[in-house]
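Continuing from yesterday's entry. The apo prediction looked reasonable, so today I'm repeating it with adenosine-5'-triphosphate included to see how the binding region is handled. Same sequence as before; SMILES copied from the compound registry.
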Amino acid sequence: MLTVADLSVSYGPIRALRGVSIRVGAGEIVALIGANGAGKSSLLRGITGLVPATGRVTFDGRPIDGLSTPQRVALGVAMAPEGRQIFTDQTVHENLLLGGHLLRGRPQRVAANIDRFYALFPRLLERRDQIAGTLSGGEQQMLAIARALMTEPKLLILDEPSLGLAPIITADIFRTLVGLRRDGMTILLVEQMANQALAIADRAYVLEGGSIVLEGAAATLRRDPRIREAYLGGDLAHHAA
Amino acid sequence: MLQAIIGGLTLGSVYALIALGFNLTYTTTRTLNFAQGDFVSVGAFVGLGTVGVLTAALGADAVGYVWLYALAAVAAALVMGVLGLPLYLAAIRPFAGKPGMSWVVSTIGFGIVLQSAALSVWGLGARMLPAPFGDEVFRIGEAGFRSQELVVLVLAVAILGAFDVAMRRTAIGRCMRAVALNRDAAALMGIDVPRVMAMAFLASSALAGLSGVLVAPILSASLFMGVIIALKGFSAAIIGGLTNPRGCMAGGLLIGLVESLTALWSAQWREIMVFLLVILVLAMAPNGLFGRKLVEKV
Ligand SMILES: Nc1ncnc2c1ncn2[C@@H]1O[C@H](COP(=O)(O)OP(=O)(O)OP(=O)(O)O)[C@@H](O)[C@H]1O
Ligand SMILES: [Mg+2]
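Holo prediction written out below.
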């Protein structure tokens, strides 16, 4: 479904991403793990067109690297960005309506979608008219995901959905992702909580210093000593604390 | 006193329109149109020109002057609004979202070009645009005021109110606010961000053009009248808070009132008091009375 070939992203003199190639097949959950500053967000921003990038991005068999972000979104690439970035000065409902922007002119379909995601996240329905900036972290992440889903994507990209959330809430969100995949969604998941991400993923890539250093089946990577040491150790320590 | 208050609110409501224009472009693009004053002046002359052309074409009394004036106002808003697009494309788009303040120079430059072009058409002189409901002075007790003051006040307040509702209740308003808060997140919703920015410039320029036609019957129009109006509009936005449309409106009314109440006592002190007010407010609240600091995401 998504093929990224030799993608590089630079910020001035800083080369954040150095010729990365990844593939996400239809119906897969693919995890992307890596330490702080490894270039995970840069890769996602390159895929969605939020930063200029060199290399090729193909989606559903079509090159999309020349397209603007809204054009890529219209083709079915959605992202819940790092730090959620919901519209904090608007209500929960208004945030969802904004997700329906591309379907303007079809208000019934937008309303049906909103109902669907209120059913998926009943907490959002309870807080329908609350200003989004006053939601709890977990609720904000639900809103970020629901808002991304409102664009009716084929591929849902998530940048560290667990950021700043209690383990119980994170587990909740991950269960939702598994449910979405069961219903046919394709998911690219960036996480520092490598253990949990690998538990729900089919395949995974490990990014280090802007390059892919490891890839393979998630179950295999989970047992890989290099991964255990570099990424899972931190996770376990975190839980123990 | 009442007279001064009405006069102050009238001018203030015009400053509020200009301040709202600054708010629209600042929040969506983090830039300001420093040609706003020229848009006001040229808007007034587009209005004058429209009245002239229509009178010549239709004969002096074919339709009531009120209608001519209304058409002139619409024409000024449309023409200046459309001119906001080349302003955005030429003076803003190359610089928006990048560090640096090149847009200050580029918008001033655009204003100079616009003013020069208008000068070559209309010349240096001041002109009078007749007020749609005549120049009689109405009296309420001691206070006397002109019909145009009420026209300006009512129209400006109606427009400000309509904007306020539109920003809160319509899809385009939601998009503007989304772009104002976070461009990347807006783009991820499928919103065409440059288009929203262009619309902000269109709306802000249209407001300036309309303001020109509104004040022309009060101040007598020259191609230099806009500068001071825009400067006060800018002060209003600074006082009220550039990021807050309602704050901008309140700032405009406040400046108009201060100006006109000071004039009761001493005409020379008018402008001084306005700028003292700006300094005072900024000393106490650097982001204006109702503004907030915008954190620029890189
Ligand atoms: N806008 C920017 N300007 C300059 N450098 C940047 C910018 N964004 C990211 N970088 C740099 O690029 C590198 C990769 O950053 P990126 O955000 O992609 O990492 P990440 O893997 O997502 O990290 P984290 O886990 O902390 O989110 C880092 O060294 C970072 O400092
Ligand atoms: Mg990141």
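Comparison notes:
- Confidence is low (pLDDT under 50) at residues 234-241 of chain A.
- Chain A has one domain: 2-84+154-240.
Will overlay with the apo model tomorrow.
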